[in-house]
């Protein structure tokens, strides 16, 4: 047996490795951020990202190169849903760990602090129905096109546009409620 | 009709600030490398500690003790081969078939460069980026420079070395994030020497490109980017390379 025959099994391994590495390089940030905005803590988003790319690695042969992004984001939505269900069962809501900061009004200057802004963002997203939240995250935060969102969510483009419109309305209303100063006579938690 | 992005579509200042903050969040440093390491099996995903029962603990202790006894017995036996020969055997690499070089996307001709030519290419000059194949062309070097190999064994790029590669590139990435481009170069040179056939070579090259951009060596960065873009192995990295190039040519 010559040397090339000995090494033959290595051939099919090289290309998938390279492809997975490129997928991680090009899409990891987007997948991780989407997981975060879909309600996962930083640690859970790390774990969930690993799962997403592990699934992609296993199903590499089924993923056409032009559909990699859509596949990864679809998988991320599913994995995020599983994580959230699991968290609910364990009663370990991540947001219990977040600092309480929305009892008082936040000005644009205060929101310049990105961490604080992200907490407000996540709370506003948490208040939205999941179908609207997914569209807002993919279109307005991850800057996908309507066609790309439509591919990821398997819904018509018209549905994406109408969900996006409603999502922005709900988001605006929630943010406005969270950031509007309340009358001092009712205290921090009271309704005006 | 395609909806317009929100910031252009009448978002308030607060909404804009929230969207900006959401878009700006990035994963932890090295998270991508950890994913690759996990996929290749050298590092497990972040797992919760396993509680061992007493029986399992006793079993593990017995296995470890038995193994230690066996190793001790083997060491105490007279060895038929002189130790000097053994150590030489341990570090002499196996000849690499050309087909394996092909599998790594490298022309066999490039891999078979004479040692002095490879060395010249490997040397990192301040004004010039290294040639693309440098991260892994040491296969030819290994056959040509066995003596040097004996002095500094080159670990095989297999599944077990991936965790080490990940750590090495993690350190380079940390230096990059800390805006220390010369340290990044030094770490990447060390990576290249240690893992001439490393699986994360393309990632190392991208880091090198980013370091050149960060160091303001735009000419060198441009040249390296051109080399990478003309190499088929880097086609999947094109978006990242282009993004780095935009910093060079705003």
Largest sheet of chain B: none
Helix content of chain A: 55-70%
Contiguous helical run count of chain A? 9
Derived structural class of chain B: mainly alpha
Approximate shape of chain A: globular
Total strands of chain B = 0
Strand content of chain B: under 5%
List segments of chain A where confidence is low: pLDDT < 50 over at least 5 consecutive residues. Answer: 1-12, 92-104, 183-192
Which spans of chain B have pLDDT < 50 for at least 5 consecutive residues? 42-49, 81-157
Q: What is the molecular shape of chain B? A: extended
Number of strands of chain A: 0
Description of the structure:
The complex is a heterodimer of chains A (about 190) and B (about 250). Chain A is an all-alpha fold and about 190 residues long. Chain A contains nine helices and no strands. Chain A starts with a helix and ends in a 13-residue tail after the last helix. Residues about 1-10, about 90-105 and about 185-190 of chain A have low confidence and may be disordered. Chain B contains 14 helices and no strands. In chain B, helix 11 (about 180-195) runs antiparallel to helix 12 and helix 12 packs antiparallel against helix 13. The interface between A and B is large, with 64 and 50 residues.
What's the short story on this structure?
The complex is a heterodimer of chains A (192) and B (250). With 192 residues, chain A is an all-alpha fold.
Keywords for this entry:
heterodimer, A: 192 residues, mainly alpha, 9 helices, 69% helix, globular, disordered C terminus, B: 250 residues, 61% helix, 0% strand
What order do the helices and strands come in, and which of them pair?
The complex is a heterodimer of chains A (192) and B (250).
Chain A: H1 3-7, H2 11-37, H3 42-58, H4 68-90, H5 108-111, H6 114-126, H7 130-141, H8 146-153, H9 157-179
Helix pairs in contact in A: 2-3, 2-4, 3-4, 4-8, 6-9, 7-9, 8-9
Chain B: H1 13-24, H2 31-39, H3 54-76, H4 83-91, H5 98-103, H6 108-111, H7 115-122, H8 138-144, H9 146-151, H10 162-177, H11 181-194, H12 201-214, H13 218-230, H14 238-248
Helix pairs in contact in B: 2-10, 10-11, 10-12, 11-12, 12-13, 12-14, 13-14
């Amino acid at each position: 047996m010559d040397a090339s025959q000995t090494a033959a099994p290595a051939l099919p391994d090289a290309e998938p490795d390279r492809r997975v590495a490129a997928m991680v390089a090009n899409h990891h940030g987007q997948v991780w951020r989407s997981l975060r905005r879909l309600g996962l803590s930083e640690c859970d988003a790390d774990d969930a990202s690993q799962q997403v790319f592990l699934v992609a690695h296993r199903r590499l042969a089924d993923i056409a190169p032009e559909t990699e992004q859509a596949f990864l984001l679809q998988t991320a939505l599913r994995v995020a849903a599983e994580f959230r269900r699991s968290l609910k069962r364990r009663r370990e809501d991540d947001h219990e760990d977040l600092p309480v900061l929305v009892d008082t009004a936040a000005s644009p200057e205060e929101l310049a602090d990105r961490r604080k802004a992200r907490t407000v963002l996540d709370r506003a997203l948490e208040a939205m129905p999941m179908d609207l939240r997914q569209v807002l995250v993919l279109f307005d935060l991850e800057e996908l096109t309507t066609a790309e969102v439509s591919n990821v969510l398997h819904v018509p483009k018209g549905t994406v546009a109408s969900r996006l419109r409603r999502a922005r309305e709900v988001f605006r209303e929630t943010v406005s409620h969270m950031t509007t100063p309340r009358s001092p006579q009712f205290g921090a938690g009271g309704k005006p | 009709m395609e909806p317009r992005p929100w910031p252009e579509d009448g978002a308030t200042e607060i909404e804009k600030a929230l969207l900006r903050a959401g878009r700006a969040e990035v994963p932890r440093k090295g998270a991508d490398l950890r994913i690759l390491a996990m996929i290749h099996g050298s590092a497990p995903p972040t797992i919760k500690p396993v509680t061992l029962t007493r029986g399992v603990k006793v079993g593990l202790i017995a296995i470890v003790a038995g193994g230690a006894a066996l190793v001790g017995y083997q060491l105490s036996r007279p060895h038929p081969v002189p130790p000097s020969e053994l150590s030489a055997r341990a570090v002499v690499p196996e000849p690499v078939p050309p087909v394996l070089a092909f599998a790594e996307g490298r022309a066999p001709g490039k891999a078979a460069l004479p040692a002095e030519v490879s060395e010249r290419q490997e040397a990192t000059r301040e004004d010039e980026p290294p040639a693309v194949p440098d991260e892994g062309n040491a296969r030819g070097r290994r056959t040509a420079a066995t003596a040097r190999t004996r002095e500094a064994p080159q670990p095989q790029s297999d599944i077990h070395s991936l965790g080490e590669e990940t750590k090495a590139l993690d350190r380079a990435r940390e230096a990059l994030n800390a805006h220390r481009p010369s340290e990044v170069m030094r770490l990447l040179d060390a990576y290249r020497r240690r893992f001439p056939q490393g699986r994360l070579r393309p990632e190392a090259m991208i880091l090198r490109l980013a370091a050149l951009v960060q160091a303001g060596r735009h000419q060198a960065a441009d040249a390296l980017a051109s080399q990478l873009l003309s190499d088929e192995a880097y086609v999947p990295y094109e978006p990242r390379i282009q993004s780095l190039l935009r910093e060079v040519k705003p």
